[in-house]
Write a structure and sequence with these properties.
The chain has a six-stranded parallel sheet with strand order 1-2-3-4-5-6. It has a domain at about 5-95: TIM Barrel, CATH 3.20.20. Helices cover about 45% and strands about 15% of the residues. It has helices at about 5-15, 30-45, 55-65, 80-90, 105-110, 125-130, 145-150; strands spanning about 20-25, 50-55, 70-75, 95, 115-120, 135-140. It contains seven helices and six strands, in the order αβαβαβαβαβαβα. By secondary structure, it is an alpha/beta fold.
């Protein structure tokens, strides 16, 4: 039987491999999730990782629990309002769904000092378009495909 890794396990491996994790908190009623994530992150290098959520209250509580953590605002909204929302809560990244992303949004976010990471991009043609926008990151279900696209070889041609 395989043991399910804890968040502390994942963060330890990430530290060993010098990886950055994007940790999504989907729901929390009383702040217990934020407290548990903050505690694990203190052991695993809070400044290295990014906590992301659609819920601004979760991100505010996360900031209160662990000031060193980088916050990212997930959004499915079109337009630039997500930039103002991110700034209000102290997020340093916006994470628009890929079909909501435009070059204008990327440029506006950069002007405000925000990183832009998009999700979930699985088609090579769309990966190429987004790579051309010089985003900070692209989330995908197929990292090997994205790697090939970035290299311009194989399935990524």
């Amino acid at each position: 039987m395989q043991r399910v890794p804890t968040l502390a396990d994942v963060l330890r491996v990430a530290r060993e491999k010098t990886m950055r994790c994007f940790l999504e908190i989907k729901a929390s009623r009383d702040g217990a999730t934020e407290r548990a994530v903050a505690a694990a992150m203190r052991q695993g290098g809070a400044a290295r990782h990014v906590v992301i959520s659609f819920d601004e209250d979760i991100l505010r509580r996360m900031r209160a629990e662990e000031p060193a953590v980088t916050l990212g605002l997930l959004t499915e909204a079109r337009g630039r309002e997500c930039i103002a929302r991110a700034e209000r809560i102290g997020a340093r990244k916006i994470l628009p769904r890929e079909d909501c992303l435009t070059k204008e949004l990327v440029d506006a976010a950069r002007e405000r000092g925000l990183g832009v990471v998009t999700w979930t991009v699985d088609e090579p043609a769309r990966m190429k378009q987004l790579i051309a926008m010089n985003l900070e990151g692209i989330m995908t279900n197929y990292p090997e495909r994205l790697s090939l696209v970035m290299k311009g070889i194989g399935e990524g041609k």
